[in-house]
Sequence to fold (222 residues):
Amino acid sequence: MPAVPDLLLVPLALLALQASLCHGACVELDSDTEAVANEGFKLGCISCKMRGEVPATASVDWYFRASDETEFSHLYSYDDQRAQIIDPRFDGRLGWNGSKNTKDLQDGSIYILNVTFNDTGTYQCIFTRLLMYTNYEYQTNTTKIINMNVVPQLTRGLASILSEVMMYVSIIGLQLWLVVEMIYCYRKIAAAGEEALRESAAEYLAIASESKDNCAGVQVAE
Fold:
């Protein structure tokens, strides 16, 4: 009979592992928005599939609207593991940086080479996902918007500077606290040692005095 509960634990453990893999493998993070001229830049676009157990296929389309334009133009397409650069302004400068070796895309990021100031603008990433259930198919669309700014050199935000300052302050404060703690412990140990020496000396004097009194009493009796 004890073997039955053990057998039940096996499928439960497998289900827990599968759930952790399905829900923990994909995290939707916002893309960076500040690119440096003449360097590469990753435009991040992640759309996690909520039902990990459902088979699906997905395609990704990117659109671009420059800062001096009013309409979006089709920039890039990725479908069935094939990529196509559509906007001639980005010929030879765009590469796929998302999910690989799968049609069930969740990461639709792209990478821009040799960023120019003309690349400043709004980028639109559209996921088209087809969920294939047993008796029907269901299509979903997810859109991500990224406002990218191109700068001559990377600038650090106030939050980043403050976090670094606080890190150094914390390190210095921790070191000072350790020094104070060491001094306190040393003084406490030293005081305990002195007290022990005084007690030993007092005990020695008491023994010596008692021995002297005993010797005096013996002499008087003689």
Summary: The chain has two domains: 26-155, 156-216. The radius of gyration is 37 Å. The first strand starts at residue 34 and ends at 36. DSSP finds two helices and nine strands in the chain.
